[in-house]
Design a protein that fits this description.
CATH architecture: 3-Layer(aba) Sandwich
Order of helices and strands: HHEHEHEEEEH
Radius of gyration: 14 Å
Number of domains: 1
Strand content: 15-25%
Helix content: 25-40%
Distance between the termini: 25 Å
CATH topology: Glutaredoxin
CATH superfamily: Glutaredoxin
Number of strands: 6
């Protein structure tokens, strides 16, 4: 998540025309505390029972958590890009993400 924070201005246009939501199976209080401590400029959504993850095919029932699937959803409400899983340690993954966000916000 630090990479999203550190590249927020570049990847997500500093939040202009872009909303970044991170969904996790962690509790809302834990996420709020963590987000505050790490100074993340985006919102976290708590999905403790995996309902959202199941809807989008991003829930791992064996581990009871949402996996690192990344979606870009365009202004029309349709998914325009999926990285399943998003390889956060690969710098080229962020290049692809930037292109997808740029394309969706034109």
């Amino acid at each position: 998540m630090d990479a999203y924070r550190d590249q927020y201005a570049t990847l997500f246009h500093d939040g202009k025309k872009v909303v970044l939501l991170a969904v996790s199976a962690d509790s809302a209080p834990a996420l709020a505390s963590w987000a505050s401590d790490r100074q993340y400029p985006f919102r976290f959504l708590s999905d403790p029972d995996g309902k959202v993850g199941r809807l989008y095919g991003a829930y791992e029932p064996k581990y009871r958590l949402d996996n690192r699937t990344l979606f870009v959803i365009g202004p029309d409400g349709k998914i325009s890009y999926v990285a399943a899983p998003f390889e956060e340690i690969d710098p080229t993954a962020y290049e692809g993400l930037k292109r997808a966000v740029d394309s969706a916000t034109r």
